[in-house]
Specification:
The protein is of the alpha+beta class. It has helices at about 40-45, 65-80; strands at about 1-5, 10-15, 20-25, 45, 50-55.
Length: about 80
């Protein structure tokens, strides 16, 4: 598991069974709605621990969507003065 510094994103390699990446980002799922057309459905962003959301990166075609979500997560944390 890799944790960014500052803690706005974590990436967990799920190689044993799923062969994908589980990504946790700062911000609740509703904070990503309406910002990027189709992101919520493409990545299935769901609740995680308090104040965070998660999604599964299943293939390389989802990478551009994941990058946008991670950037928005960073901006949310920065805007709230939590960096």
């Amino acid at each position: 598991r890799w944790v960014a510094d500052p803690n706005t994103v974590t990436i967990t390699v799920q190689d044993a069974r799923s062969h994908n990446l589980r990504i946790t980002v700062y911000g609740k799922p509703n904070e990503f709605e309406g910002i990027f057309e189709g992101l919520i459905s493409e990545l299935e962003i769901t609740d995680d621990m308090a104040g965070y959301s998660r999604f599964i990166l299943k293939n390389e075609n989802q990478l551009p969507f994941a990058v946008k979500i991670i950037q928005h997560s960073y901006n949310l944390k920065k805007k709230r003065g939590r960096l």
